[in-house]
TrEMBL record:
Residues 53-263 form the ER-bound oxygenase mpaB/mpaB'/Rubber oxygenase catalytic domain. It comes from Allopontixanthobacter confluentis. This is DUF2236 domain-containing protein. InterPro entries: MPAB/Lcp_cat_dom. Pfam families: MPAB_Lcp_cat. One of its GO terms (molecular function) is oxidoreductase activity.
Length: 285
């Protein structure tokens, strides 16, 4: 059978190709997962801050990498990855699963979102063990979950502010934290910030719980250098460079990473261009 003939405009064909490539990276094609259709019966209303922030593909990719790098500085979160994740061969699988979780809980039907959250909670009950010093850890620990959430929320918003909407009003930023807190609490996280100020204060308070380690640095290098299947190397480099630049200075130092500086300008420019291109490609998707 001959291939179907594309009868639309060339720009429509380009949009379809770009959207297909991005969705191939963010969805597990082998398991038959399909893109999450936006629902009017989601946990959050259309055009609310959380749906605006989580809808931007490029800033979410940058924020996802930034958040994972931050999380690896928490000894309990790090040990959970070391003990219960095949991170050396599937680090980007973790990012894809996080992206899928965010998509379902932000845009999907509320009942499906609740099922997804319940499934993650069941998985967390099996993630437990002991730190090298003998301290027990568990993925159900409210304080550990709180830091994982904090790292994600601050990273997604920081990337969105940097690459999409620098003038986002503070009231909308606060609403973003309040909305994202709904999901965090359903996962058992506590305490959870509900404003940007609370998130900044919580990050300062958490500093003394974070630790530099060879293992955290190893995972950082894997995240930044392991090429996910289907993603061009140039895109990976641009996203990684942008994520490192947006990290707090203390986190870069603890992970042994340098701020890109002038040498990172091409990658940052590429990230900005990629963001504009993907926003064009995903319009009305």
């Amino acid at each position: 059978m001959p291939s179907p003939r594309f009868t639309g405009r060339p720009s429509d064909m380009l949009r379809a190709q770009l959207v297909g490539r991005v969705r191939a990276v963010f969805n597990d094609i082998e398991s038959g997962q399909k893109p999450v259709p936006p629902s009017d019966n989601a946990l959050f209303e259309r055009d609310s801050p959380i749906r605006m922030v989580h809808a931007d593909v490029t800033s979410m990719m940058v924020g996802g990498v930034r958040g994972l790098l931050l999380q690896m500085l928490h000894p309990h979160a790090l040990q959970g990855v070391l003990d219960h994740s095949d991170f050396r061969t599937d680090m980007h699988g973790r990012l894809r699963r996080t992206a899928r979780f965010i998509a379902v809980t932000t845009f999907g039907d509320a009942q499906e979102a609740e099922k997804t959250i319940a499934r993650v909670n069941r998985i967390h009950t099996k993630v437990r063990g002991t730190l090298p010093g003998g301290t027990p850890y568990s993925a159900t620990d409210p304080a550990t979950l709180a830091f994982v959430h904090l790292a994600e929320a601050t990273s997604f918003l920081e990337a969105y502010l940097h690459y999409v909407r620098p003038q986002m009003p503070l009231a909308e930023q606060d609403e973003y934290f309040r909305q994202f807190a709904v999901i965090a609490r359903k996962l058992g996280a506590s305490p959870v910030p509900e404003t940007r100020h609370e998130a900044e204060q919580m990050m300062r308070d958490m500093r003394h719980h974070l630790r530099a380690s060879p293992q955290a640095s190893e995972i950082a290098q894997l995240v930044l250098n392991q090429k996910p299947e289907g993603a061009p190397a140039a895109i990976q480099q641009a996203i990684g460079t942008s994520a490192v630049e947006l990290l707090p200075a203390f986190a870069r130092a603890m992970l042994g990473l340098r701020r890109p500086g002038i040498g990172g300008l091409p990658a940052r420019a590429a990230t900005s261009l990629m963001g504009r291109t993907l926003r064009w490609a995903f319009r009305q998707q």
